[in-house]
Structure formats: structure tokens, C-alpha cells
Amino acid sequence: MNDSDLATLRASGLLVCRSFFEPEITERFRELGLRIGRDVREGKLQRNGQFVSGMDIAGEAKVEDSAALKRFAERFLGDAPHELLVRLLMKDEAFGGSVMPHQDWPYFGGDTRKLSVFIPLSHCGFDNGSLTFFERSHTLGPVERGEIDVARYPEFPRNCPDLEVGDVLFADFLTWHSSHACENHDDRILIQVVLQSASDACCAKVFGNGYRDGPVSLYRFSPMLRAVPSVGRDLIRLFMSNGQPEEACKMALGILEDDPDNVMAHLALAEIASGRGEIPTPHIEGAERALSILSAKVASARTAIAPESPQAAGISSKMRDALAGMFNLGARRNR
Ligand SMILES: O=C(O)CCC(=O)C(=O)O
Ligand SMILES: [Fe+2]
Fold it and tell me: Looking at residue 222, what is its pLDDT?
């Protein structure tokens, strides 16, 4: 590893180093890959999508034994590497599907400056469904969880390098990646290790050296006084008033994925459809179904507190007012 490798990783968010690991460690990885393949087929290890469980992969692989890896991580992080994660990612007969384009950071939190290390334990290539990285995508910073609409970003070159045991692929933790369905079902086994600096308060595990003292922020996903979802009614309205109904539609559909009975999202979709000159029957039906679920909830909230109390009456009228004020749908419907 030299300065230009580091510069490549920083600039493109991706770096492949061939025959990177020491020979004895490469041999350990090769044997481990063969054993994992056998154990999966004999049912000794469990599969869930691309994930493998039932094995202490950190204890078996001992990636921290690699001086080359430690040195590289120290230079990239500017600090003693700490270990956030060691996991196995596998494709084979049991799972050969695709993995949508995403960024890993929002699933883990903490400091964004982390190093993702992909270590092949078998051949990993386009043929057996290996990972595609979107070069330079890390320059956009942290994004939300979920599928990224990569078709909108042709400026980020797609790179699906062939990897062999002994090679390593370093990625910035913010670099978007995906994997396509495999063309054959040969074992594709990768270890992913995520390393971060000591000052990153989301984990206290020192790479290969126990635990440090010091704070670990268990609340890294929820530092806010109140949780404010980043996608909500206001954003839908903003896009609608800005003449971007397609974006508003995307927001509303996203809300419905989490909350299928969200009245506001159904009403927004109805309004967008009627704006396009379509008859928004399914969306109106969705809103009506969601409303009836909501009124049943209001009724049970009313009985949960004293049925005749002023609070109970307050719940119903506030709810009505709030819904009436959300979208001006009645007027459009009667046009
Ligand atoms: O194993 C794969 O193909 C991709 C897995 C991945 O990127 C993830 O689980 O975050
Ligand atoms: Fe990922």
C-alpha cells in the first residue's frame, strides 16, 4: 500500500489490492471458505438471504492477524482501528438473489468515516453475483436507509471487480453498492469487516485487542429530543407546491411502505392522481380504509379513557379538524 492507493480510495471510494494478505492468512481464508461451504450444505450453519449465522466468524478468520490490514486501516483512519462489525456475506444454491443499491452507514450510525473491508473466501465475480460499487458515490455523504435510485446517477461509474482469495477490496463506508442475481450458484463467500477510529463512539471494540474504556453511544440512532421523520407531510406538500408531483408521489409511497394505513399519504396520492386527470379510486379507497381503521382506534382510545370525558370528545374533534385541514381533496373530487 502506498500514498497513491490511499488517494484512490479517498477519491473513488473504492480500492482493490491484489494478493494483499500474508500467505499464511490467505491459506487460512481459503480453508475457511471451503469449510463454510461444506457446513452450509450440511445444515450446520444457518442462512437468511445473504447472511450466514451459527459461526464465530471473527474468531475463526482472525483478520486482525494481518499486519498489512492493520497498517492500511491505521493510515486510512489516522488512528488505532476499532472494530464495528465482522460478518459473512454469501451466495450459493440457497440464496443467489440480488441486493438493492444501498449505503451501509444508515444501518449502523456513528461517525461516517469508517473503512469497509471486503475479504473474499472464495472466487467472487460477476458470474456468482458479487458486489457492484458506485465509484465516487461516497462524495454525496450519508443518505437514508433503503433502495437508492441509481439510474439517476449515471455519473458514478459501476465497478464489479473479480476478487480471488488473498485479494482485498476497501470501500469507504459511504460508498453505495449492490449485487445482482448470480449467473451460477458457485459459492460466493465474503467477509465484511468495518473498522473505525477510537473517537467513534458507536463501538468500543479495539481491532484485535479487546475493549477500550470510554463512552459507547447506544443512542446513536436516536439522539433527538423528539423523533422527527425526515419524510413526512411537509415534504410531500413542498414537492407538490413546487410542481414536482412525481417526487411527492415517491415520498407518499415511501410513507405507505412503513405505514400502510397513513391517511395523509393516501390523500396525497389521490390528489396527485386527480391532478394528472386520473380517477383516483384506489387512493380514495385506501384513504377510506385507513380512516375507518383510524376511527376504530379513536373509538377504542375514547373507551380506554372515561367515555364521556372532555378528553374523549377532544380527541374526536381534533382528529376531524386535522384530517380536514390536510388536503383540499373534497373540492377536487367534486369538480
Ligand atoms: O452480499 C451481498 O451481495 C451484498 C450485501 C450487502 O451489501 C449488505 O448486506 O449490506
Ligand atoms: Fe451493504
Answer: 78
